[in-house]
Write a structure and sequence with these properties.
The chain has a single domain, classed as Vaccinia Virus protein VP39 (Rossmann fold), CATH 3.40.50.150. It is 32% helix and 24% strand. The chain contains ten helices and ten strands. It has an eight-stranded mixed sheet, with helices on both faces. A two-stranded parallel sheet has the order 1-10.
Length: 290
C-alpha cells in the first residue's frame, strides 16, 4: 500500500462538496445497500457515529431509521460537513458535526452504540489504528457496520496505466482478508465479511476519469506523479483501456467489501477470534444489551 496524503484527500473532497450528491452514483448505491443490512441486525442505538459522513445523506437516513438516536457526523472534509449542515434543521437537530480523521476519532471511549461507515476506510493508511478507534468508542455489544473498496476496484484503469509506465496512477486498496484480520486484532468480535462486484459502464475512458474527479475520489497516493501527465501518455492509456470495451461501453469494476463486527461485552472478554467470510444476507444476528 502506498501512503495516502490526507491533506490531498480533504482538499479533493472540499472541491467536490457542492456537486457531490448529484454525481455520487456509486457512493449512493453502496450506502443504500449498507443501510439495508441493518434490517438483519437488531440494534437500538442511542448514539450513532457516521464515519466519513460526507454530505450527510446516510446520517439523515440513520436518524430516520432510529427516531430517538443522535448522530455524530465525522468527516475529513469541512466543506462536506457544511453541505450536510445546510440540509439539517437549525433547532432541535439530532445531528452533530465533527471534522476529523477516521484514524483519530475525537469521541469519548465507550459512548457509541453503532458505528456506521460507507466507503471511507479506503482513505486510511493504517486500518489497525482506525479499527482500534472504532473499538475504543463503541459501548459493550456495540455494532460496527461498514463498506469499503477492495483491490479489484478500477482494475481496468490500473491495468491500462500499467501498460504505459510504472507510476502510481490509481489508489490501491486493502484485501478483504486483511481487513477481517485487522478487525480481529482490534479486539472486535463475531466478524463477518463479504464482497460484491459492481460494474459501472461509460461511453469512453475520459467520462470515467471525470466521474472519479468530480466526486473527489481521484489519486491521493504520496507516490503519485507530481507533474501533469503528458498528452502522449494519456493517449496510450486510453488506447490500452479500449481493450476492455464491451460493445458501446467501457466497464469500470468496483469491488465492494462489506463487514460487520461487535464490540465485546467487556474488555476482559476480548479475545482473538476468527472471521467468517459469508454473504451477510444469510445471517441474522441479535445482540441484547446486558
Amino acid at each position: 500500500m502506498n501512503e495516502l496524503d490526507k491533506y490531498k484527500i480533504a482538499y479533493s473532497f472540499d472541491r467536490a462538496a457542492s456537486a457531490y450528491e448529484k454525481n455520487a452514483v456509486l457512493q449512493k448505491t453502496v450506502a443504500e445497500r449498507l443501510l439495508s443490512r441493518l434490517d438483519l441486525l437488531t440494534v437500538k442505538p442511542k448514539w450513532i457515529a457516521d464515519i466519513g459522513s460526507g454530505t450527510g445523506t446516510t446520517s439523515r437516513a440513520l436518524a430516520g431509521r432510529y427516531k430517538s438516536a443522535r448522530v455524530a457526523q465525522i468527516d475529513l472534509s469541512p466543506l462536506m460537513l457544511l453541505q450536510s449542515r445546510s440540509k439539517s434543521r437549525i433547532f432541535f437537530s439530532r445531528q452533530y458535526y465533527c471534522c476529523a480523521d477516521a484514524e483519530n476519532i475525537p469521541l469519548a471511549a465507550r459512548k457509541i452504540d453503532l458505528v456506521f461507515s460507507s466507503l471511507t476506510y479506503q482513505w486510511c493508511n493504517d486500518t489497525d489504528r482506525a479499527f482500534a478507534e472504532v473499538k475504543r468508542v463503541l459501548r459493550p455489544n456495540g455494532l460496527f457496520l461498514f463498506a469499503t473498496l477492495g483491490p479489484d476496484t478500477l482494475r481496468e484503469l490500473r491495468t491500462s496505466w500499467a501498460a504505459v509506465d510504472d507510476d502510481t496512477h490509481v489508489n490501491t486498496f486493502f484485501d478483504m482478508h486483511d481487513i477481517g484480520d485487522a478487525l480481529v486484532r482490534a479486539g472486535l468480535e463475531s466478524v463477518v465479511m463479504d464482497v460484491e462486484i459492481i460494474t459501472l459502464n461509460y461511453p469512453d475512458c475520459l467520462s470515467l476519469m471525470r466521474d472519479i474527479k468530480i466526486v473527489g475520489a481521484h489519486n491521493t497516493n504520496q507516490a503519485r506523479p507530481k507533474t501533469l501527465t503528458g498528452k502522449r501518455k494519456m493517449q496510450l492509456m486510453i488506447a490500452a483501456y479500449e481493450k476492455f470495451r464491451r460493445g458501446s461501453v467501457l466497464p469500470a469494476t468496483y469491488e465492494i467489501v462489506y463487514g460487520h463486527a461487535w464490540a465485546p461485552t467487556s474488555d476482559q472478554n476480548t479475545k482473538q477470534g476468527t472471521v467468517a467470510y459469508v454473504p451477510l444476507e444469510s445471517l441474522r444476528k441479535t445482540r441484547d444489551r446486558k
